[in-house]
Amino acid sequence: MKKMLVPLALLLTGMLVQASPGGLSLRITSPATEYILGEPINFALTWKNESDKPVGVAYGFQCDTPVTHVHVEGPVRQGCAERPNWDIIPGAQKLGPMQEKASGFPKEFVGIVDKGDYEVWVEYDTRSLDASWTQFEVFPTFVESNHFKFKISAPTGLDATVFEKHAIDCNKVGLSPDDLLSRYPASTYTGYVLITRSVPLGGEPFASMENPEQIYKERWSGRASTQQSIQGHVKDNTEKMIAYAKSADLFLAAHPDFRYAPLIRRQYALCLGFTGRMPEAIEQVKVLAKGEGKEADEAKAYLAAKGEKAEKPQSGSSSKKN
Known about the structure:
The chain is an alpha+beta fold. The protein contains 8 helices and 11 strands. It folds into 2 domains: 3-153, Immunoglobulin-like (Sandwich), CATH 2.60.40.2970; 175-306, no CATH class. The strands form 3 sheets. Strands 1, 3, 6, 9, 10 and 11 form a 6-stranded mixed β-sheet that branches. Strands 2-4-8 form a 3-stranded antiparallel β-sheet, with no helix packed on it. Strands 5-7 form a two-stranded antiparallel ribbon. 32% of the residues lie in helices and 19% in strands.
């Protein structure tokens, strides 16, 4: 097993574990513990002050004295590591009592691209910083995060076909988002296109579907000067919503348990509702309400306000989680 150590300019934003003497704790997480080759993987890093007093946290690093390190055990490929230019800015950041901040980094940052078992953890070490840091209330300390373990396997089925035909350097899938949507709508890789694709009115609450004309007026009228241009804007965005709904329908039929399915289903429901397919939109909201998380909670609240109950998905619509 190879081990990789990466100095990382302090990432302040994301989950956690053991508290340091100063009250600081650190946790690294990822949405799953099993992935396939070419699948995006992002790690969340959360810093938390577990004490009842403010804690100073160094950010940036001073040339050759990094304070944060990412460790990886597993078949890392250093030639595939993509390391951006982190700003070297000495300074400090205070975390208030019980306050937390999170950030993240992708697997490519540390060269995780091949099959195998991996273990990732982060260390924060200020013991080598000079005494001037005390003016920012940054004192010598050492914090080690939890050790996050996960596995990357070879893709199977349709995903294997996509990967074998279109994998490029460092095991990336070399297809554009539009190509994935049009050529492989049921592939796991396509799910990541759907969660990142911008959807018109995708941030609206479910209740807004009941009065689309009002939403169009509030959101879009100010962007056009004439009635004709307004209608053109509505037409263009309606076409985008219809296209997203079609792609989401095909994908969710194949992967109802995809780890980001709730987000896709929420967007799918809104697209249906805003394009005149309200009964179908409600059915998707009902499916969404049977799950857990913020999308499910929103769906439950919407149905409760309408006096409707959530329903179980139709039998037979199950799939291996991806």
